[in-house]
């Protein structure tokens, strides 16, 4: 009778420790992340934004698929997201705070543009950040929206 309890308690302790290790992994300072030589152009209706992309396998695969026009879905009054037809390489971290203008990958195929700043406990792969997110919330609006991603010439 004591052996099953001991196994169960050991298992629960391992789960707690594993989750604690995962959530406390500090994210590197994003100002030190290498950036790609290419920039991303993001078109929303008549508005155009430029984003600086981090130099990582996620963006190498993403840029190879551009140009890309997608319908992005509203979520939580702070973001737009879409599921990409094919997954991308990932290296997820918990950013702690998401900034307006962050371009992140959730899971392996959900592309997200954030238009509000807030704290999060979720894990994302950093893709880039809009150079000037002023007007982004207005351009994206409160409903679903069509967005085009292309390499800046």
TrEMBL record:
Keyword Signal carried by entry: yes
InterPro entries the UniProt entry points to: Cyclophilin-like, Cyclophilin-like_dom_sf
Top-level lineage group: Bacteria
Pfam families associated with the record: Cyclophil_like2 (PF18050)
Residues making up the signal peptide according to the UniProt record: 1-18
Keyword Signal: yes
Keyword terms: Signal
All copies of domain Cyclophilin-like, residue ranges: 42-150
Protein name: Cyclophilin-like domain-containing protein
Species: Hymenobacter nivis
């Amino acid at each position: 009778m004591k052996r099953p309890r001991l196994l169960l308690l050991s298992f629960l302790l391992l789960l707690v420790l594993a989750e604690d290790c995962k959530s406390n992994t500090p994210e590197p300072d994003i100002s030190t992340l290498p950036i790609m030589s290419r920039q991303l152009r993001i078109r929303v209706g008549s508005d155009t934004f430029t984003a600086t992309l981090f130099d990582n396998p996620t963006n190498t695969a993403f840029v190879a698929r551009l140009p890309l026009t997608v319908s992005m879905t509203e979520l939580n009054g702070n973001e737009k997201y879409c599921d990409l037809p094919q997954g991308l390489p990932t290296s997820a971290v918990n950013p702690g705070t998401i900034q307006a203008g962050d371009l992140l990958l959730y899971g392996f195929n959900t592309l997200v543009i954030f238009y509000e700043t807030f704290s999060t406990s979720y894990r994302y792969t950093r893709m880039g950040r809009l150079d000037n997110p002023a007007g982004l919330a207005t351009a994206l609006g409160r409903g679903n929206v069509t967005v085009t991603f292309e390499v800046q010439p």
